[in-house]
């Protein structure tokens, strides 16, 4: 299973594409739908690069679940999960978001999934878990209606298994809007700041690695690794985003920066331009 970079689309997919606000435009503020728990589960196919910085892409399964239970939002998208400890307020309002998040890092954990022979000759990395939390502020009723949402947040997660033994800090700005009872869309922009350990594990090349792969030795330092733009949408097949089957899709473009972009695994045999897409089906209860 290969899901190394779904953290790029997780902030986007976590927005309430099946939230009560999507039906409020037609149901009205007194609708009982606005008070009930709602959960969407789905599965799709993601088209993503073999490793962070690769040219070659292939398909991987992408499971997911998002929803609101007891007023608390949660999201499980691919290799990442988060939970908002603060209840969402009703109606157009400012809201604070805060809670734990966890991500599983599959980057270069298997050589069989890497197309480039030189990168395949590099040491593989152990699977690791990155745990931390996020803090944000959101506003509903911003541009298109009283139900759209703008959110500014920052997340922090740290490798807890000692594979890269460093932190990843991600500021994120996202916008969500229901276009009708059947359609909702979202967009986001984010960036990742990584520690020296992350750079050493996934972008640096030791002299021994150089002899094994033929790539030049390289030593980069942590810093801003990339920025990312993305968009997502959902279309209800049943006519109501709050119940039944729907199609979901997302796409992102990420540009590697600085020492990450200068690494031979990117500059010589890969590319700084990273694309990711996913499409699937989901069911809302």
Structure in words:
The chain has 285 residues and is mainly β. The protein is built from seven helices and twelve strands. It has a twelve-stranded antiparallel β-barrel. A hairpin with a 2-residue loop joins strand 3 and strand 4. The longest helix has 7 residues, at 21-27. The chain is elongated, with a radius of gyration of 20 Å.
Short descriptors:
disordered N terminus; elongated; mainly beta; single chain
The profile of the biggest β sheet is: 12 strands, antiparallel, barrel
Q: Whole-number average pLDDT?
A: 88
Please give the radius of gyration in angstroms: 20 Å
Percent of residues in beta strands: over 45%
Query: What is the tally of helical segments?
Result: 7
* Helical residues, percent: 10-25%
The SS-based structural class is mainly beta
- Counting DSSP E segments of at least 2 residues, the number of strands comes to 12
Distance between the termini: 28 Å
Strand order of the largest sheet: 1-2-3-4-5-6-7-8-9-10-11-12
Please trace the helix and strand order, writing H or E for each element. HHEEEEEHEEEEHHEEHHE
Question: In terms of topology, how is this protein built?
Answer:
Layout: H1 10-13, H2 21-27, E1 38-49, E2 57-69, E3 72-77, E4 80-83, E5 94-105, H3 117-120, E6 128-140, E7 149-159, E8 167-178, E9 183-194, H4 196-202, H5 207-213, E10 223-236, E11 244-256, H6 258-262, H7 264-267, E12 273-284
Antiparallel strand pairs: 1-2, 1-12, 2-3, 3-4, 4-5, 5-6, 6-7, 7-8, 8-9, 9-10, 10-11, 11-12
């Amino acid at each position: 299973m290969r899901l190394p970079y779904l953290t790029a689309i997780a902030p986007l997919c976590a927005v309430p594409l099946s939230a009560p606000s999507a039906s409020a435009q037609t149901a009205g503020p007194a609708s009982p739908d606005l008070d009930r728990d709602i959960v969407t589960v789905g599965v799709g196919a993601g088209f993503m690069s073999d490793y962070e910085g690769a040219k070659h892409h292939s398909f991987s399964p992408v499971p997911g679940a998002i929803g609101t239970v007891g007023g608390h939002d949660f999201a499980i998208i691919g290799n990442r999960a988060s939970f908002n400890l603060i209840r969402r307020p009703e109606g157009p309002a400012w809201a604070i978001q805060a809670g734990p998040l966890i991500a599983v890092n599959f980057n270069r954990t298997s050589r069989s999934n890497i197309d480039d022979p030189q990168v395949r000759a590099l040491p593989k990395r152990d699977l690791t878990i990155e745990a931390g939390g996020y803090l944000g502020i959101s506003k509903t009723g911003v541009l298109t209606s009283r139900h759209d949402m703008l959110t500014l947040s920052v997340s922090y997660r740290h490798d807890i298994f000692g594979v890269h033994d460093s932190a990843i800090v991600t500021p994120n700005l996202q916008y969500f809007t229901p276009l009708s009872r059947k359609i909702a869309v979202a967009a986001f922009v984010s960036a990742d700041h990584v520690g020296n350990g992350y750079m050493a594990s996934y972008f640096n090349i030791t002299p021994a690695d150089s002899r094994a792969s033929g790539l030049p030795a390289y030593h980069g330092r942590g810093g801003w690794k990339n920025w990312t733009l993305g968009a997502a949408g959902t279309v209800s097949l049943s006519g109501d985003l709050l119940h039944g089957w729907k199609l979901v899709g997302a796409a992102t473009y990420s540009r590697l920066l600085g020492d990450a972009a200068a690494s031979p695994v990117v500059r010589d045999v890969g590319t700084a331009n990273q694309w990711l897409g996913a499409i699937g089906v989901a069911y809302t209860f």
